[in-house]
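[Discussion] Sanity-checking designs against the backbone

I'm trying to build intuition for which residues belong where. Below is a structure token string of 202 positions. I'd appreciate it if someone posts a full sequence so I can compare it with mine line by line.
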């Protein structure tokens, strides 16, 4: 009975997590007008199995990427401790969608671009759903044990995104400004890393 109960709980938890990922995808695709022939929730994989494929010290939640010739394999994994963390859920779903969009466009994308876009996505989703869009910038915490290169990437993306999103809040402060805000966000999504940094830090 206990084993059956555990399996039932696991299935229920997986279904609930899938629904949350689906909701995030719907919002982000609507905000950016993305037409993606995929369901992010179907890329969900067991976090323990995913981490076994990563170098030691890899992130506890993230996106797994493997290239074989011209094929790109993606997996989304979320540690059980992060299932209720909306920020992690949005960030990792954002990474998956951004990788898929760039692959379909046959465009390269850097890790810095993924991190920067995920920060902006969290802002955009909060604006669209009536949350505090700058809250996650102000409650920012460094990941423990991040290597120097990753820490510098996070620091750069965080600084650039915070500056850009504060500028958006100044230029489009009201609910009535949403059409202009969405036009700006959609244009930003479609430019490359260097242009993104230039726009964000301008």
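Best answer:
Here's mine. Compare freely.
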């Amino acid at each position: 009975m206990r084993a059956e109960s555990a399996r039932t709980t696991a299935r229920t938890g997986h279904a609930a997590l899938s629904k949350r990922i689906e909701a995030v995808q719907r919002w982000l695709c609507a905000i950016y007008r993305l037409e993606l022939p995929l369901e992010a929730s179907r890329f969900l994989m067991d976090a323990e199995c995913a981490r076994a494929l990563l170098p030691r010290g890899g992130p506890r939640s993230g996106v797994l990427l493997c290239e074989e010739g011209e094929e790109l394999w993606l997996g989304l994994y979320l540690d059980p401790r992060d299932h209720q963390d909306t920020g992690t859920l949005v960030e990792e779903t954002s990474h998956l969608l951004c990788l898929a969009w760039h692959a379909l466009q046959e465009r390269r994308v850097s890790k810095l671009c993924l991190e920067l876009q995920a920060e902006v996505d969290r802002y955009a989703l909060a604006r669209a759903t009536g949350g505090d869009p700058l809250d996650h910038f102000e409650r920012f915490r460094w990941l423990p044990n991040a290597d120097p290169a990753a820490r510098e990437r996070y620091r750069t993306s965080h600084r650039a995104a915070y500056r850009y999103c504060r500028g958006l809040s100044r230029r489009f402060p009201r609910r009535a400004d949403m059409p202009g805000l969405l036009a700006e966000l959609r244009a930003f999504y479609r430019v490359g890393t260097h242009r993104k940094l230039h726009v964000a830090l301008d």
